[in-house]
Structures are given as C-alpha cells and as structure tokens.
Design brief:
There is one protein chain. The chain is α/β, with parallel strands linked by helices. The protein folds into two domains: 3-134, Rossmann fold; 140-214, Thiamin pyrophosphokinase, thiamin-binding domain (Jelly Rolls). The protein has helices at residues 18-21, 36-42, 59-67, 83-93, 109-118, and strands at residues 6-10, 29-33, 49-52, 71-74, 98-102, 128-133, 136-142, 146-150, 156-161, 165-172, 181-184, 193-194, 199-203, 208-214. The strands form two sheets. Strands 4-3-2-1-5-6-7-14-9-12 form a ten-stranded mixed beta sheet. Strands 8-13-10-11 form a four-stranded antiparallel beta sheet, with no helix packed on it. It starts with 5 loop residues before the first strand and ends with a strand. 37% of the residues are buried.
Length: 216
C-alpha cells in the first residue's frame, strides 16, 4: 500500500495529549482540516495537506507551513461543506483505505454531532473509518462487515446505531451477547456492554453502527 492509503485527519475539536496519540500515528499521511493543523503541530508533526477555509489558522502559521512545503487547499468561507467533509473527500480521492480521525469530538456541540453522523455517509465506504479520544476508540461498522476488538476484561463496549435499523447484529466475547439482533436508531439497548476477555467480535448484516471501546 502507498503511504496515502493510511491517513490521519486532524480536526478542530479536542485532541489527546501526545503520549496518548503517537501510538496511532506511525506511517500515516497527515491531513488537517483547518484549525486541526494546530493539533498536528503540537504533536511535532508536519502536515502534508491543510484543507478548509482557513478561518481558524493564524496567518503566520500558514506562511511558515507553506514555506516548509505543506500543500494548502483553500475554500471560501461561504461553502456548502464542513472542513472535515472536504478532508474526507480529498483523502478518499487520494486512495485512502484506513482513516484515523483525531479532534473529532469536543468544542461546539453542533460540530461534534455533525462530525459523528457524517461518518455514516456511503461516500466513505471504500475506507475504514475510526477515531480515538483518550482511552476510547470508536469504529464505523457497515453492513456485511465484522470487527475484532482487543482490550482488557471489563472494558466498556457500546454499539450506537446510525441508521433507522441495524440488522443481523451478532457479538462474541461480550458480557451480554447478541445473536442476529436488530438495533434501532436512538435506542440504548447496546450501551455499556463489557469485554469478558481480551478479544471480542462484532458482526453486522445490514445498516451502520459506531462501535466504541473504553478502558477508562
């Protein structure tokens, strides 16, 4: 795989301290959605591409990065897409197959909700999408896919439906297993399950779900 197949996109929410983040970043192409650039710089990373209207990025930082070779893709402030959506479109256009999103959560509530729900769009189906925050990881799981989770006994695992129904849901390795279950958008049946060992598997027949893992 080329280096552009594994991507990290920094957005402008809250980001983990360096000791939590660096373990996820090795070998990843660095894209930044506007103000997410500051998170990358705080981690000592050089952004390969910065995308957005640049209203959250100081001019001095832009000038320094341009001089160092960062590519800037500028869009007008009055646009129809968020900076994250533009970054996802660009990453997929470059052949991304595994996309880690950092800074996805926190800050404005409308942005946080929009960021999470954006991941359910079918346009991104060519890539594995996941995000991390502190001790938590979250993965988008689509119909026909399975996901192996690794952690410690007692880690909290939740399944959050992103489509009206999610069918054929089967889990192994959780305290309360599911067998060909149907989940419904907005219901909390699958919040706060637990790993019983160091590994669990989640399978989905149809629909889309976010699977979260926390070892807080």
């Amino acid at each position: 795989m080329t280096h552009r197949s594994r991507v990290v996109i920094f957005t402008n929410g809250e980001c983990d301290p360096p000791e939590e983040v660096h373990r996820w970043l090795e070998g990843r192409w660095v894209l930044c959605a506007d103000g997410g650039t500051l998170h990358a710089l705080a981690l000592g990373l050089h952004p390969d591409v910065v995308i957005g209207d640049l209203d959250s990025l100081p001019e001095a930082v832009r000038d320094r990065l341009e001089a160092a070779g960062t590519q800037f893709l500028r869009f007008p402030r009055d646009k129809d897409y968020t900076d994250l959506e533009l970054a996802l479109q660009y990453a997929l256009g470059q052949g991304a197959e595994d996309i880690l999103l950092l800074g996805l959560l926190g800050g404005r509530l409308d942005q946080t909700l929009a960021n999470v729900l954006l991941l359910a769009r079918p346009e991104w189906d060519a890539a594995r999408l996941w995000f991390a925050y502190g001790s938590e990881r979250a993965y988008l799981l689509r119909g026909g896919e399975s996901l192996t989770l690794r952690g410690r006994p007692g880690d909290i695992v939740s399944l959050i439906p992103l489509t009206p129904t999610v069918t054929g849901v089967t889990t192994q390795g959780l305290r309360w297993p599911l067998h060909n279950a149907t989940l419904h958008f907005g219901h909390t049946l699958t919040v706060s399950n637990e790993l019983v060992g160091e590994e669990a598997v989640v399978r989905v027949g149809e629909g889309r779900v976010v699977v979260t893992v926390s070892n807080d």
